[in-house]
């Protein structure tokens, strides 16, 4: 459980970073570690550096001319810079996306509680009453009400006096 909390905290910190600034700093002057230091993602930095140094070592160990070797090393380094820029910016973007989904889920839970509190003590509540109370679009409120019905927290029925669909806490 502690590990999950640490990952969630790391995601929240990463989501606070700017995706564009991360991409710029990672490709800035062709020095990727700057972007990784900005995002505090040291493990991917070390893995990327190990890969690039390993590949450079393989190219250097080959029996080629100095110009060919320089071209190959330059090409490898350019590929590394582009790949690390994309990887680091994508990590920030994904953290923001996961945070947005978590906030959406949390907001949905809060709205359900708000609806239940509003309905408590009232005999029946119409969809229009809930729209006015929450300030949401009627489709969004209807979706929340349907969720609450599926969870067996409220029940919808037709009011006898006028046939309107109303809801009551079970």
Taking the sheet with the most strands, its summary is: 3 strands, antiparallel
Order of helices and strands: HHHHHEHHEE
Overall structural class, as computed from helix and strand content, comes to mainly alpha
| Strand composition percent | 5-15%
The percentage helix is over 70%
User: Low-confidence stretches at least 5 residues in length (pLDDT < 50)?
Assistant: none
Specify Rg, calculated over alpha carbons: 27 Å
Query: What topology, given as strand order, has the largest sheet?
Result: 1-3-2
Distance between the termini: 34 Å
Q: Give a count of the beta strands, DSSP E runs of length 2 or more.
A: 3
List the total number of helices. Answer: 7
Output mean pLDDT. Answer: 83
Q: How many structural domains does the protein architecture include?
A: 2
> How would the global form be characterised?
rod-shaped
Written overview of the protein:
The chain has 170 residues and is mainly α. The chain has helices at residues 2-15, 19-27, 33-39, 42-61, 66-119, 127-134, 138-150; strands at residues 125-126, 154-158, 165-169. The chain folds into two domains: 1-107, no CATH class; 120-170, Winged helix-like DNA-binding domain superfamily/Winged helix DNA-binding domain (Arc Repressor Mutant, subunit A, Orthogonal Bundle), CATH 1.10.10.10. It is built from seven helices and three strands. Strands 1-3-2 form a three-stranded antiparallel beta sheet. A hairpin with a 6-residue loop joins strand 2 (154-158) and strand 3 (165-169). The longest helix has 54 residues, at 66-119. The mean pLDDT is 83.
């Amino acid at each position: 459980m502690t590990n999950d909390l640490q990952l969630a905290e790391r995601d929240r910190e990463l989501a606070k970073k700017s995706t564009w600034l991360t991409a710029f700093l990672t490709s800035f002057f062709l020095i990727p570690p700057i972007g990784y230091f900005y995002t505090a993602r040291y493990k991917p930095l070390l893995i990327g550096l190990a890969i690039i140094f390993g590949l450079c070592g393989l190219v250097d160990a080959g029996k080629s001319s100095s110009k060919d070797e320089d071209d190959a090393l330059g090409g490898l380094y350019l590929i590394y810079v582009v790949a690390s820029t994309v990887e680091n910016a994508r990590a920030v973007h994904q953290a923001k996306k996961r945070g947005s989904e978590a906030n959406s889920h949390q907001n949905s839970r809060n709205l359900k509680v708000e609806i239940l509190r509003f309905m408590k003590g009232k005999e029946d509540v119409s969809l229009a009453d809930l729209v006015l109370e929450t300030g949401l679009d009627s489709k969004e409120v209807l979706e929340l009400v349907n969720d609450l019905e599926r969870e067996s927290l409220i029940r919808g029925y037709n009011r006898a006096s006028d046939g309107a669909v109303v809801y009551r806490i079970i």
